[in-house]
Every structure is written in structure tokens, then in C-alpha cells.
Amino acid sequence: MTATTLPLTSTGPQDEVRPQLRLVVAGSVDDGKSTLVGRLLYDTKSILADQYDAIEAASKRRGAQEVDLALLTDGLRAEREQGITIDVAYRYFTTPARSFILADTPGHTQYTRNTVTGASTADAALILVDVRNGALVQTRRHAAVMALLRVPHVIFAVNKMDAVDWSEERFEEIADQIREIGERLGIEDVRIVPISALTGENVASSTASDGTKAGTWHDGPPLLDILENLDVQAVEQSLPFRFPVQLVIRPRTAEHPDYRGLAGRVSSGRVALGDKVTAHPSGLTSTVTGIDSPQGPLAQAQAGDSVTVLLRDELDVGRGEVLTTPEEPSRTIDEIEGVVAWLDERPSRHNARLLVKVGTKVVRGLLTTVRGHWDVDSLAWTNPGADVALNDIARITVRLSEPVAVDDYATDRSTGAFLLIDPPTGATLAAGMVGDPLAGAPIAAEIEEDDDEDWLGAGSSI
């Protein structure tokens, strides 16, 4: 049966859609994360006058000589009183070139789950380094988490350059430490930029808030320019086509009795009219005859597009299936071996009954094996069989009640991720990654040779 295209009503001219960047900010305690986020919001004119008045008043109550921009993101009263960040604070801002979803994560080791939460969907990571202290152990931990989560772009902002009179020699010392971290973890795109979040120099522009320019030796772009020009869709579009089906649309109207569309978001790759596609795990194959979008019919769709795909054949395909090309299929499995970050305060239990969400599909599962816990300091796998507790990262095996379509997380983040859910409460227990996310990184080979190697060291620098 040939599918027909459902006409879409135009609502008038469409507003220009800015490309979006999901950015996570991390770093050691007091490296200036919240101040930097506040500076970005302030310099991009993304705060209201009454918000600025409120933080100005709060700054005066705390005895600060200048407005403390960190208060824009440290939203909890406890955080404001202590001057630290203990939760993920999400903020949104736009520039003429791009819109941003920004997550300011905690710096403390015991809040690893918050860092994982903020980084799990990030297109880029921004890790702050205090130029006075260099790359600390916590800097390496955050870089390791970003490598584990396969965040494609990692920018290291060497902050508080004003405190060392913008010393080029000191900056290069820190830059050498950062390059070694990136190389050992296999992070493909590492950027390093000197900034002063306090004065604003080299954040949104090369000059400070008072108009001065201390870092005359630095001829690279400011931080905001780097963020605006990151190509975050190139990787997704170069991957094989993946389309998790969210909904089957069948209006059953007299005007369009044969319309049957599969709605969802193209998670990677691209699809065009006339392409052959295969649904997984069912294995059924058909040809694309139509692609509908809110803007009207399309000749092709690519990663990030939310569309409705029409097929030549009326296949028994619904929510939870994944459309791929026949030449580059996803894997169909009934047991997941992967790595999880445990997010719940209750620890795991052997053979615990779970719900497992993979893409748009939810199936029942059993947590059968804990194969090891990841020591974020040494990057070694230890304590096999031990329950997984809050903030732990562990290798696990989950047996599923029915097959699901997946890819290795190291290959495709969108179809290689999963969630473990508590059936009675619906609470998210853990966020997981199929396979070995660090596969291929130089540090992975070193760990296999010597599990006792503490590559982070006990000191404050490499």
C-alpha cells in the first residue's frame, strides 16, 4: 500500500532557528565556574534588570566590593550562604549566532552524579582550571568523565589570569598539563583558552569590562567565539542513519484514509525520499515515500530534525523500533553489557527487577552482574560483585525481557545510551552506556597493562 502525504497548514513565515549548543561547565571548587557562567549571561545581555538588582543587593549583604555574578547560577540559598555550587544549575542564553543550554555542575567529588547528569547530553564541555593551582586531581576527574561520556568537544578555560598578571609562561605550563590529559584520555577535540571571569577579559571579548586588555600575547579568539563556532552537528550527520520511532500517526480521516506516518527525531545520519530503511528489532524493510515536517514536506531529513517518515509498505512498526539503512543496521540484543553512573540514593541489588529505557522503548530487565567499579582517580576497575551505590560508576550486565536495537556508545551516543528505572516509583536509578565508552583511548590500554597505575597522582600537577 502506498502512503499518501498529509498536507500541513502553514502558519506564516517561520522565525529563524538558531543552532543550539548544549554546554556543561565543570571544574574544581573555587575555580570560578559560577562566576564564568554569570559573566556569560551578563555579557550576552541575558539577565533582566531586576535579576541584576537582586544579585547586586545580595553581593552587598555578603560584603563583596563588586557584583558577584556567580549568584546568577548558585540558585539555592544554601549554596549562596556557603559560596559553593552543589547542584546542576541550568541557564539559557542566546547570541546572534547560537542559542545555548548551559549546565553549571558541582566541583566536589561526592557530586559525581550531578556532573554525569549535566554532561550526558552535552555537545561540548567547558572545564575551568585555576591558573594559580594548575591541573588538579579534580580537573583530571572531570576530564575523565567527559571522555567516558564521549563529549565531542572539550574546552579548558584557564581562569583567573588577572591574578598572575596574564603571564604567558604560566599559561603555557598549564596548557602542557592539559594537552597531556587530553592525549591520554583520547579526547579528540581539546581547546585551551586563557580568561578572567572576574574582569570579563577574553570571555565574550578580548577586552576586560573596564576596557583594558592585559593579555596582549594571546591572539586567539575569546571563549564565546569558540563556543559559537563549534560544529556540533557534523559528527551526528556523518554517522549511520538512526531514527527511533516515537509515535505512529494515523488520522483515519475521510480525506486521508491511508495516511500512516512514523514520527520521531533523526538522532544521527540522514534520510531522503527513495531510501530503503529497515526497522529494528523487527527486521522489516520498506522505502521512504514521504518526509513531513512542521515546515512542510521535505526531500531529506538529517540529525536533529523532528519529522514524520512515510513508508511504501504498511509495516507493523511502532514506538520503540529504530529505522536504519539496510547496509548499516543497529545491533539487536537481549542483554546489555555496559557502564552505568548510579544516580539513586538506594544502592543496586543483585537480580533486581528494573525497567530499562533504550531510545523510545521501555522493557523489563534484571540486573544480573556487577563486573567492576570504576575508580575515577586511578581509572582502574575494582570490586567486582559489589553493589553499586550513589555516585558510583560501574560495569554491569542487564538481562532484558525482549530484544532492543542499540549501538555501542563509543560509536553513537544517541542509540548507545540507556536508563535504569525503578518500576514501583518511576525513579531513575542509573544512566548507562552500551559497551566500553573508553575503547580505543590510550589510557585504556595502559589500564589493561597495569590496573594499579594511578595516572592522576597525589599531587596538584602532572
UniProtKB/TrEMBL annotation:
PROSITE patterns: G_TR_1, G_TR_2. The keyword Membrane does not apply. It comes from Arsenicicoccus piscis. It comes from the Bacteria. Residues 18-235 form the Tr-type G domain. PANTHER family: TRANSLATION FACTOR. Its EC number is 2.7.7.4. Keywords: ATP-binding, GTP-binding, Nucleotide-binding, Nucleotidyltransferase, Transferase. One of its GO terms (molecular function) is nucleotidyltransferase activity. Gene3D superfamilies: P-loop containing nucleotide triphosphate hydrolases (3.40.50.300), Translation factors (2.40.30.10). The keyword Membrane does not apply. It holds the Pfam family GTP_EFTU. It is an enzyme of class 2 (transferase). This is sulfate adenylyltransferase. InterPro entries: CysN_GTP-bd, CysN_II, CysN_NoDQ_III, G_TR_CS, GTP-eEF1A_C, P-loop_NTPase, Small_GTP-bd, SO4_adenylTrfase_lsu. CDD domains: CysN_ATPS, CysN_NodQ_II, CysN_NoDQ_III.
